[in-house]
Amino acid sequence: MISPVFRWAGSKRKSLPVLADFWKPTFNRYVEPFVGSAALFFRVEPAVALLGDINADLIEAYEVIRDRPDDVHRAVSRIPRTETHYYKVRALETAEMNSLTKAVRFVYLNRYCFNGIYRTNRDGKFNVPYANKKPGTIPPIEDFRKCASLLERATLKSSDFGSILSTVRKGDFVYLDPPYAVNSRRVFKQYGKKEFGEPDLARLGLHLENINRKGASFVASYADCREARSLFAKWITRKIQVRRNVAGFVSARRLAVEIVATNIEL
Asked: Which of 58, 83, 244, 261 would bridge with 235, disulfide CB 3.0–4.6 Å?
């Protein structure tokens, strides 16, 4: 099983046994518009895929890892893992960087930032603090090479999820793990300038209808909340327990319930 290169807040690694059961090799193509760490993609290893995300830096980093895994790993491994170096790297301006240097910076910050969170300020600058108590580690070069090999099967696209989903065709398998838009409690849902909100959920609902109408299959994960229960009312659903890891203190981390919705008859 291939381990993702990136840490990602809200990653579904611990839900993979449930999610992977929906996948069949007979699907024509794997599509994921909120790709994040791509944990399910790396788990099921599809022959053809379309991976998208509104985070252009993430998609560019995947492209560089796909093309130059050894160079990325070598460069990241040379940067000391200290709080001082972390903030120096975070402060670097990326406008004049080449794609390799940008990817190296992205990987380094992702592995050593607090809880794998990706968040930017209004100017689009990454502003997540260093993980003082439990920083991550750089995966071995073999993981970079395995990820690169599988990414060669995928088309990578940086765009809004609607643009990705508009290309879905009959026989596709679509996995959706969008940010949460939950009004009843505090959840992490802002990864950049624009917050994912209820209007986006409404758009997502229309795309689910369209996916089903085209003869494609989908699986969606979401927090168990009023918004999700409304969104998935007409689809097949089940509830699973997941451990939330975004909280800053271990005592605040807890088991939570998520809804998995699908149009696939089990």
From this structure: 261
At 89-116, the pLDDT tens digits run: 999 999 999 999 999 999 999 999 998 9
User: Among 89, 80, 79, which Cα is nearest to 109's?
Assistant: 89
Tell me the C-alpha to C-alpha distance, in Å, between residue 4 and each of 42, 84, 167, 266. Answer: 7, 26, 25, 28
Give the integer Cα–Cα distance in Å for 155 and 130: 32
The rounded distance, in Å, linking the Cα atoms of 137 and 218 is: 33
How many helices (H) and strands (E) would you count in the chain? 10, 7
Counting the structural domains of the chain, the total is 1
Report d(CA 52, CA 187) in Å as an integer. 23
Structural domain span for residue 258: 13-262
Q: What is the pTM of this model?
A: 0.91
- Are residues 177 and 221 in contact, defined by beta-carbon separation less than 8 angstroms? yes
With contact defined as beta carbons under 8 Å apart, do 95 and 193 qualify? no
- Residue 8 in any domain: the answer is no
